[in-house]
Amino acid sequence: MLINLDLYQTVAMAVLVFAMGSFFRKKVSFFEKYCIPAPVIGGIIFAVVTLILNLTGIMTINTDDTMQNVFMTLFFTSVGYTASLKLLKKGGLQVAIFVVAATVIVVLQDLLGVGLATVFDMDPLMGLCVGSIPMVGGHGTAGSFGKMLETDFGVAGASTVSMAAATFGLIMGGLIGGPVAKGRIKRYQLVSQIRNNVDEYDTFSEEKINEKPTAEQVLKAFSMLFLAAGLGSVISSLIQKTGLTFPSYIGAMLAAALLRNMSDVTKKFSIMEDIIEILGNVSLSLFLSMALMSLKLWELAELAGPMVVMLFAQTALMAFLAYFMVFRIMGSDYEAAVMSSAACGFGMGATPNAIANMQAISNIYGPAPKAFFIVPLVGSLFIDFINGMTLTLFINILH
What we know:
Layout lengths: L1 E3 L2 H21 L1 H5 L4 H18 L4 E3 L3 H15 L4 H7 L1 H27 L4 H5 L9 H16 L4 H31 L26 H26 L9 H17 L6 H21 L10 H26 L4 H13 L4 H15 L3 H13 L1 H16 L1
Parallel strand pairs: 1-2
């Protein structure tokens, strides 16, 4: 039996997949502990069910990816609106240093992935699918770049491998973060230096909207998203004429970043950042649900052995960089130890993982206000830009 879902049926199914993931996330403590997103849980369950239906010859389900592309673009557009140079300037030198550390992590992950893919006689582009695409990028970047590598470059199984690697990264990032930080804290007898003004770093964060948003505010936020997406499509078409390969959302991210910084400088219009963030998170959840629904898990069979080796190599690399590089360049103090645990979190999948790692350490050893400012700032504002540009460079070199 062949079932072809149209646009509306695909979105409706994505909503059900998300609801199923939310249900199991609440019921299974493992998912909550390692910050596994609800759409990932539901999407993988759906993918396993479709795998069984496919292998038994019962039915094949095809989905419509029109809205998947729309939700992907809206999410990355919302990311672009967070790229405020004003906040980067306020963060000071240590934010810039952590950005450099994140860039080094991205580059080394891709070099390792491409190198091991070559050793296993695989397409070098497949190495990116177990490199910074899923590791630093997480499921959002895995879904977008994986699909691009499949459709534009013919890398069979790229989406499935990227998504599987992203899930692996989320789990391992949570497992290695604590031991890395605790190892440094115990070796150097580090202690939390509680300041009299613990809230010092909180003054840098944007004021949050506490009241219920109005329909007019939500409409304005939607308008800003689609305005940047529209401008971004023009930017992307111009970029494509250079002969370089860029993911479709790069133009939208750049347009959103331009509008954000114009707002910061001119004060002539507001961005509605908090509502845009909510809309971006909604778009990400639906995009991930739809992307995971279309996974072809049977494509993992012949890649299973090399993939396991590559993923554990990435885990070892991340632990090494966090333990030695991040800890030292961030000051070799208690805050640096906490940030090394965070590097394991967002370096293998997600900023929420990084924050969960930091909370686990600070709950035992004491507050780390500087770490809780620097890591979310870099993880949410700049790392996607860095990763996207680095991946684009690698793809154009390897292709």
